[in-house]
Write a structure and sequence with these properties.
Length: 287
């Protein structure tokens, strides 16, 4: 079990802003860059509350086999917004995936498990929009913890008459905390003591689970890469299809920044995610 250090969401947002600014600077002609060619449906309500909204990025062309990527951003459960992750929708719609980026409620307005319940509600909305398509869940950092719980603990989806094996085609965790100590006072507030065992994804690895891909940077000092290794080992011990990739020289922020067009060469995040989803194409049930 490892500690979780609060990363700077502002640092990540600033990096993303600089990348987009650089793209704007270098594209001197009026031609729209290829990565930006997607149709966007913004602020789709999945609930009645202010932050219960999601954005949908549609690729230029879709077929009956087009898959859906449902993404949850990180931010220490107390910060973040879907507009800062437009690059996710644009990157993966270019790759041919329908991409959904969801907001969810944050601390201090809510504590665990409210944000996981929001994610389950957003996933249910996504499923209702694309009932016959494969849907993959992915998340970065705190978003990966939320996504892992949706995938491994059927409690959340069952409230919406959904199940992981039937409705989730796979989970991709990016630098996620799955087995972390709750010691800092802020996190003790976010995760009230009676709920803490339910917040650890490693406690839900027995039985059949959807395929899982865990990505982590070896230089991550916010969430130790051992979190991904331990979760992978536990899932494999239960006979589940699990892969783990540890990237040398990569930290907590640049593993997801590698999904922006200008930084795509620093890590194979996009390539590994795309390959994983395409390998699962056509599966009617994931487990």
């Amino acid at each position: 079990m490892y500690g979780y250090k609060s990363p700077s969401f502002k640092m990540l947002a600033t990096m993303i802003t600089l990348v987009i600014s650089a793209l704007t600077f270098v594209v001197l002609t009026p031609v729209t860059p290829s990565w930006a060619k997607s149709s966007i449906q913004k602020d789709v309500a999945y609930g009645s509350l202010g932050r219960q909204k999601l954005d949908v990025y549609m690729p230029k062309k879709t077929t009956s086999e087009t898959q859906v990527l449902f993404f949850l951003y990180g931010g220490s459960w107390d910060s973040g917004n879907k507009s800062s992750y437009a690059f996710m929708g644009k990157t993966f719609s270019k790759e041919g995936f329908i991409t959904v980026v969801a907001d969810y409620r944050l601390y201090p307005k809510v504590t665990f498990p409210a944000f996981v319940n929001d994610a389950a509600l957003a996933f249910a909305k996504t499923k209702s929009m694309f009932p016959d398509r494969q849907i993959f869940i992915s998340g970065h950092s705190a978003g990966a913890q939320i996504g892992a719980l949706l995938t491994l603990d059927d409690t959340y989806l069952a409230k919406h008459d959904l199940s992981a094996c039937r409705d989730i085609s796979g989970f991709i965790g990016i630098a996620g905390p799955y087995d972390f100590e709750i010691t800092a006072e802020k996190f003790r507030q976010i995760f009230p003591e009676p709920t803490r065992p339910q917040s650890q994804a490693v406690n839900f690895t027995s039985g059949k689970k959807p395929p899982v891909l865990l990505l982590h940077g070896k230089r991550d000092t916010t969430v130790h890469p051992e979190d991904s290794v331990i979760l992978s080992q536990k899932l494999k011990a239960s006979g589940n299809d699990t892969q783990v990739r540890i990237y040398n020289g990569i930290g907590h922020i640049n593993i997801v920044a590698a999904l922006t067009p200008m930084l795509g060469l620093i890590a194979n995040t996009r390539q590994d995610m795309t390959s994983f989803m395409k390998q699962k194409s056509g599966l009617k049930r994931s487990c």
